[in-house]
């Protein structure tokens, strides 16, 4: 897509810019997660039984609310695996989120329907029977700030990102003529300034420490 940010990622990454096919059966589950690098995602239901989806908005307060519930019920496990939520291996009842007053929504996805998830929005669910789906990530220019937040989060866990956010930022800057609005340029400039400022500070800190 001409305005897609991810077209500047020049290697194929399964599930990110190369679509994945999903073959489901009764109660096949996709566990609670948000997308890599807080990207958008789009999921298409080709054929078969519907999928039950649960979703939590991607605002900081709502996403933090889900993570708090996660930690409360899995604190022992997370001592051994601090980034457990990123492993996409854990499911828990939406009722736990309701009890903690975390906003949660549900929908049934039928044949021929799309589901789009937004940056940092947690989602999970299961299949009602045999089905075939297809999914891939995408990113519009308003994603840049979300990608920066994801980058910082991964660093706090020493978890490698699926692609370099900083490299993507500079690649976009080298294709500035492709930006079609002042707002997009402003978002990109803010991110460039943040990356450069941080790099200079860390270099100074490294030199001063010997």
- Shape designation: globular
Treating each run of at least 4 consecutive H or I residues as one helix, how many helices? 6
Order of helices and strands: EEEEHHHEEEEHHH
Helix residue percentage: 25-40%
Strands side by side in the biggest sheet:
1-8-3-6
Report the end-to-end length measured between terminal Cα atoms.
47 Å
- Kindly report the average pLDDT value: 90
Q: How many strands, which pairing sense, and closed or not: the largest β-sheet?
A: 4 strands, antiparallel
The count of strands amounts to: 8
- Given helix and strand content, the structural type is alpha+beta
- Beta fraction: 15-25%
Low-confidence stretches: none
Alpha-carbon Rg, integer: 19 Å
Word description of this protein:
The protein is α+β, with helices and mostly antiparallel strands. The chain is 36% helix and 23% strand. Helix 5 crosses helix 6. The protein is globular, with a radius of gyration of 19 Å.
Can you give keywords for this protein?
210 residues; 4-stranded antiparallel beta sheet; single chain; 36% helix; alpha+beta
Lay out the secondary structure.
Layout: E1 20-24, E2 29-33, E3 40-48, E4 51-56, H1 60-73, H2 75-80, H3 94-99, E5 105-109, E6 114-117, E7 122-127, E8 131-138, H4 144-156, H5 165-173, H6 182-208
Antiparallel strand pairs: 1-8, 2-7, 3-6, 3-8, 4-5, 4-7
Helix pairs in contact: 5-6
Quick synopsis:
With 210 residues, this protein is of the alpha+beta class.
């Amino acid at each position: 897509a001409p305005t897609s940010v991810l077209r500047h990622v020049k290697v194929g990454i399964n599930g990110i810019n190369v679509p994945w096919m999903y073959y489901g059966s009764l109660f096949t589950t996709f566990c609670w997660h948000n997308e890599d690098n807080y990207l958008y995602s789009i999921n298409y239901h080709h054929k078969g039984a519907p999928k039950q989806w649960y979703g939590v908005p991607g605002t900081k307060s709502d996403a933090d609310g889900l993570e708090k519930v996660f930690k409360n019920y899995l604190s022992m496990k997370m001592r051994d695996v601090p980034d457990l939520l990123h492993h996409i291996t854990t499911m828990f009842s939406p009722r736990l989120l309701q009890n903690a007053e975390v906003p949660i929504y549900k929908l049934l996805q039928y044949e021929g329907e799309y589901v789009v998830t937004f940056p940092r929005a947690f989602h999970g669910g299961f299949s009602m029977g045999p089905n075939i789906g297809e999914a891939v990530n995408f990113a519009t220019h308003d994603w840049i700030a979300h990608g920066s937040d994801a980058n910082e989060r991964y660093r706090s866990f020493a978890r490698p990102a699926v692609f370099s956010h900083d490299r993507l930022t500079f690649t976009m800057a080298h294709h500035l003529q492709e930006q079609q609005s002042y707002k997009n340029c402003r978002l990109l400039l803010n991110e460039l300034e943040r990356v450069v400022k941080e790099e200079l500070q860390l270099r100074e800190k490294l030199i001063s420490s010997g």
